[in-house]
Inverse folding.
C-alpha cells in the first residue's frame, strides 16, 4: 500500500467522514438477447408489454431489436440496484410469451447477417435518429457484433468525499475548483483502471467459447471444440478480445487519459473528422439514411472502450460538451462479461468486489501515462482475455515481466485495507468476503468462471449453443417461479404504458422533416438525445 493510499484511507476512516463512503451511487445496465425455444435469435418486435424502447427508462434495446437492455436506477447500495434488476427480469419474463433471455455474452447461433434485426424506435425523428445510428453501426462493424452482450457498471463517489480528499491533498493547489479536482481524480481512476483491468478479465471473464458461425468465415486463431463451437483453451473473455469490435477507423483514436481536456479533444476530433471509407459510402443509399454522418465516429458513444468518464447531459448538450462544462460525474465500466451462472448476469459478490476495486483505483496514486504504457496496458489486457489461465502466464509492468498470479495477489493485498474500510462503514464482511473469493480464483484457475463454462460446455456435448440454451431455460424457470407481487407488477405495467404514451406524444407533436432534424442534431442544437 502506497503512502498516499494509506493517508486517504486514514482520512476517510475519521468518524466525521466515514459515512461519505456510503453516499456514492451504483447502477447496472444489463444486456441480453431474446431467443426462441430452440435457441434461435428472436425475430419478433420488441414486446409492447415491456413498454417503448424509446422512452422506458428501465427496459430498452441496445443495438439489435432482439438485444434487450435492463437499466437500474443509480442507488447508494448496489444490493438495492440488484434487487431492482431482479424485479425487471421477473417482470420481463412474465411478458416474453415463450421467449428466453440468452444468459451469455457471446450470442446464440445467428441467422444470416442481413436478417439480424436492427433496433427500431418508432417513426418520430428522435426514434429514427436512434435507428439510423444503429444502421451506421451495422454498416461499420457488422450486425453480428451488435449481438454481443455485457454488463455495464456505473460508479460514482460522493462529491463531498472528493472535497474531503481535495482539502487533505498537500500536492494540490486549493485554488483548483471542486469540479476540476473531481474530474482529475476520475481521470486518474481511469488511468489505474487501464493498468489493472486485466485482473477483472481473469476473475470474471466468462466467454471462452463461441458459436462457430459468429466468425462468418473470418480468419481466426481459435481452436475447434466441436462442429458448432470454437474456443481458446486458456481464454477468459472472447467478448473483449480482438474477435469483438474490429474497425480501422477506431484504431486511429488514441484518447489521452492524463487530463480531461485532452480526452475531450480526442473524442471531439473523432466525431467531427471525416473518414474517407465512410465518405465513399455517404449518409444515404437510394434515398434512405444509412448513417448519421461520415466521420470517424457518428457520436461519442460509438467509441468502444472498457471504461468511460460520464456526465448526465442537459438539454442541448452532446456528451463531450457536458464533460467540458461540468466535469466528470461518474465512470461506466464496460468490460464485464455476463455471468452465465447468475440469472441476472451479475451477482452481489462480484458487485461488492467491483466496489472495492474501483475505490482502490480512485484512492491509490496514479502517475501520468504515456503511449508506451498504453501499449503495455493493451498487451496485458489482450494476453489475459486470450490466455489468462495459461500456467505461468507473464504480463509486463513498466517494462518488467511479472507473473499474472503474483501480480494479482499483490493487487488484492493492496485492496484489502479498502475492503476493510468499506465493511467498517457498511457493517458486515461482504467486501472482505468478495476479496477472499477472488483470492481463491488466483490460487486455482479451474475455479474461474471461464474454466467453469468450458467444463459445463464439455459436459453438454461440447456445444456452446446447447449448453447456454439449457442453462438459460433453467434460469428462466427459476425466475418465473418467483412471480412479482401484484403491486410491483402494476407499477411496471404503469411505467410501460406511460412510456408508450410518451412515444405517441412525441410522434404526434413533432415538427419539421427528418433531414432538418439530423442537421440540427449535428449542430448540437437539439435537446437531450441519448442514442
Amino acid at each position: 500500500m502506497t503512502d498516499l493510499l494509506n493517508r486517504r484511507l486514514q482520512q476517510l476512516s475519521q468518524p466525521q467522514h466515514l459515512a461519505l463512503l456510503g453516499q456514492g451511487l451504483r447502477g447496472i445496465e444489463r444486456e441480453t438477447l431474446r431467443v426462441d425455444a430452440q435457441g434461435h435469435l428472436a425475430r419478433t418486435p420488441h414486446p409492447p408489454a415491456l413498454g417503448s424502447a424509446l422512452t422506458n427508462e428501465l427496459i430498452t434495446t441496445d443495438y439489435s431489436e432482439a438485444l434487450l437492455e435492463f437499466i437500474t436506477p443509480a442507488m447508494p447500495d448496489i444490493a438495492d440496484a440488484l434487487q431492482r434488476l431482479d424485479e425487471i427480469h421477473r417482470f420481463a419474463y412474465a411478458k416474453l410469451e415463450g421467449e428466453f433471455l440468452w444468459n451469455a455474452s457471446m450470442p446464440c447461433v445467428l441467422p444470416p447477417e442481413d436478417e439480424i434485426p436492427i433496433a427500431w424506435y418508432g417513426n418520430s425523428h428522435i426514434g429514427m435518429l436512434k435507428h439510423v445510428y444503429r444502421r451506421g453501426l451495422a454498416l461499420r462493424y457488422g450486425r453480428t457484433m451488435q449481438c454481443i452482450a455485457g454488463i455495464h457498471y456505473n460508479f460514482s463517489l460522493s462529491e463531498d468525499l472528493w472535497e474531503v480528499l481535495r482539502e487533505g491533498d498537500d500536492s494540490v493547489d486549493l485554488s483548483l475548483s471542486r469540479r476540476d479536482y473531481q474530474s482529475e481524480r476520475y481521470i486518474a481512476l481511469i488511468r489505474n483502471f487501464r493498468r489493472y483491468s486485466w485482473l477483472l478479465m481473469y476473475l470474471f471473464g466468462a466467454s471462452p467459447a463461441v458459436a462457430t458461425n459468429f466468425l462468418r468465415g473470418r480468419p481466426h486463431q481459435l481452436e475447434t471444440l466441436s462442429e458448432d463451437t470454437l474456443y481458446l483453451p486458456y481464454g477468459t473473455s472472447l467478448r473483449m478480445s480482438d474477435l469483438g469490435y474490429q474497425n480501422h477507423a477506431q484504431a486511429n483514436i488514441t484518447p489521452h487519459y492524463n487530463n480531461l481536456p485532452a480526452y475531450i479533444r480526442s473524442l471531439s476530433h473523432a466525431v467531427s473528422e471525416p473518414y474517407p471509407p465512410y465518405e465513399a459510402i455517404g449518409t444515404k443509399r437510394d434515398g434512405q439514411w444509412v448513417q448519421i454522418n461520415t466521420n470517424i465516429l457518428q457520436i461519442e458513444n460509438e467509441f468502444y472502450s472498457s471504461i468511460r468518464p460520464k456526465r448526465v447531459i442537459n438539454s442541448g448538450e452532446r456528451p463531450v460538451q457536458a464533460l467540458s462544462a461540468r466535469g466528470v460525474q461518474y465512470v461506466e465500466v464496460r468490460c464485464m462479461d455476463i455471468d452465465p451462472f447468475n440469472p441476472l448476469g451479475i451477482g452481489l459478490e462480484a458487485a461488492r468486489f467491483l466496489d472495492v476495486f474501483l475505490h482502490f483505483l480512485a484512492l491509490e496514486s496514479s502517475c501520468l501515462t504515456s503511449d508506451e504504457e498504453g501499449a503495455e496496458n493493451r498487451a496485458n489486457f489482450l494476453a489475459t482475455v486470450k490466455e489468462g489461465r495459461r500456467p505461468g502466464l507473464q504480463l509486463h509492468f513498466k517494462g518488467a515481466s511479472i507473473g499474472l498470479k503474483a501480480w494479482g495477489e499483490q493487487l488484492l493485498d493492496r485492496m484489502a485495507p479498502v475492503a476493510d474500510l468499506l465493511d467498517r462503514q457498511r457493517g458486515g464482511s461482504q467486501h472482505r468476503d468478495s476479496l477472499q473469493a477472488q483470492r481463491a480464483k488466483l490460487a486455482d484457475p479451474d475455479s474461474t468462471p471461464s474454466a467453469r463454462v468450458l467444463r459445463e460446455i464439455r459436459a453438454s456435448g461440447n456445444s456452446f449453443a446447447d449448453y447456454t440454451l439449457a442453462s438459460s431455460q433453467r434460469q428462466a424457470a427459476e425466475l418465473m417461479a418467483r412471480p412479482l407481487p401484484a403491486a410491483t407488477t402494476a407499477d411496471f405495467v404503469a411505467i410501460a404504458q406511460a412510456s408508450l404514451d410518451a412515444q405517441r406524444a412525441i410522434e404526434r407533436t413533432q415538427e419539421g422533416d427528418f433531414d432538418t432534424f439530423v442537421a440540427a442534431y449535428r449542430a448540437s442544437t437539439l435537446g437531450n438525445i441519448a442514442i
User: Anything to note?
Assistant: The chain has one domain: 3-522. The two ends are 41 Å apart (CA to CA). The chain is about 45% helix and 10% strand.
